[in-house]
Amino acid sequence: MDTRVKPGYDALNNQLAANSREGSERTMGFKCGIVGLPNVGKSTLFNALTETAAAQAANYPFCTIEPNVGEVAVPDPRLDKLSAIAKSAQIIPTRLTFVDIAGLVRGASQGEGLGNQFLATIREVDAVAHVVRCFEDSDITHVEGKIAPLADIETIETELMLADLDSLEKRVDNLTKKAKGNDKDAKEQLDLVNRALVLLRDGKPARFLERKPDEERAFSMLGLLTSKPVLYVCNVEEGAAATGNDFSRAVAEHAKKEGAVAVAISAKIESEIATLSREERAEFLDTLGLEEAGLDRLIRAGYQLLDLITYFTVGPKEARAWTIHRGTRAPAAAGVIHTDFEKGFIRAETIAYADYVALGGEAGARDAGKLRLEGKEYVVADGDVMHFRFNT
Question: Do 191 and 138 meet the contact criterion of CB atoms below 8 Å apart?
Fold first, then answer.
């Protein structure tokens, strides 16, 4: 399928602030900020996941003195199958962006350590991966002097909530004045701010605030640190990578209670895997009793957390994956490739992944009547193979 997309796609803007997609092509999945106390294996995990040495991993606090950004390809076996059928010259997976944020400590919201200067970075991500130390090692010091994952979670969460409290309390007077002047937007924001303050003062993150669908935009504009969905990453010892341990099980139970997701990963194993070839990785994982790398499990958990799905564009030049939120309609899905696709959207030629594979590609699907013409109201399904028609 000719997707009418110019070859290549823009490199990720490392500043994370450039949100415009005008004239660009993006295959990003989502941005995930990695947070955690110092010495929990955060930077080691970042290095392993991105297969770079961009973040310095060392046995002392604050070794990460700048937010580091790295990308990984999202593994999807379906893309390989589609490429083989279409004999695509190139495979372009969607991308997952990790942002390694300096280790926070108790008092970060008041400027302790280096954490405070990185709090704003968290506002730029879609989700927060909270790395928690779930292993014993006398050679690696713990900033709190003990291994207590749930206490570590509370420390980080408390600092983020304190920062949110400070941010919201500073806005109340100004919003109150505007609301008294019958500013509709100010009234809406003030209501959300007051409700969020009640929650935060009660020691609960802002993401637990009950809100209506039409309040989501105003809520997101508050830019609250604790509004981000949380994924707990339990850094376990090598021997517990397949089954987890008592520490990670306690974190998983905590995550379940708050509707979050938890994944057990050995950062040490992931750092070793990063240096191996594809074939060597499979053999190494098999010896450890692991069916897949921690990266794969982390990505899947992240997609589950953010309710993301993937659709594909396939042709002789390339087979490419694109990430969208579940429930996205065809024009908006087209806009992920390029804004012109959304503006001039006419229709989407669509084939379900299972039909594409079973019928040997586009021609077989077309002959079998499985190629559908979908309009502007079509909600894209996970795995759809799509070709967008649009007016320039």
Answer: no
